[in-house]
Amino acid sequence: MDDHDLAAALADEAGKLLCDIRAEGGEVGDRRANALLLERLARERPDDAVLSEEAPDDPIRLTRSRVWIVDPLDGTREYGEPPREDWAVHVALAVDGVPVVGAVALPAVGLVLHTGSAPVVPAAGPGPVRVAVSRSRQSEQVKHLVDALGATTVPMGSAGAKAMAVVRGDADVYAHSGGQYEWDSCAPVAVAAAAGLHVSRLDGTPLRYNRPDPYLPDLLICRPELADNVLAHVRSH
Asked: Mind telling me which PANTHER family this protein's record contains (predicted)?
């Protein structure tokens, strides 16, 4: 299978495993989903490197053009609070630092969004702009953006769930400035870009992956027609 189909299949497989073992909690879920993804990638793409949240960082990835970037369980807190649905599995492939392949599984709703079949973003509805925000910790920059846009907020858990809320038409903007890592955003960014959404850092610069330090503190995913306005308000703060 090609890379897009592989990413979707792996995200789906890990998501189904997580659903089956959800009663065992997030620590077990993280470990077992990570083991599944690493084993399958080693078998299917033995020449590629892997960067995973749940595995030691192997510096060999810095010498490779193709690097799979995975988060076996994005939203461990929400996963541990059934029946919450706002948790995800991320599987992405960055080629020379660009996220060209991605799959985000939302296992609790039986959905996998991926670059092999680019999602179609629903048309914007009436009413104020909707911003997907953290359930518990909104940064001052995001609070300023919400106020500047006269927006309503859509609180939810994992980064993948928030990004896919924009892809699915349940939100219009996902802006994050509270600190993340590459595995938090690589797959969501690939899927959002394939769907035609704007993706960038909060200063408008491109998102780059497989860097020596995987810390990637900020992110913007939004409807393209909102991007200039959102970036202007972010820069003004």
From this structure: 3'(2'),5'-BISPHOSPHATE NUCLEOTIDASE 1
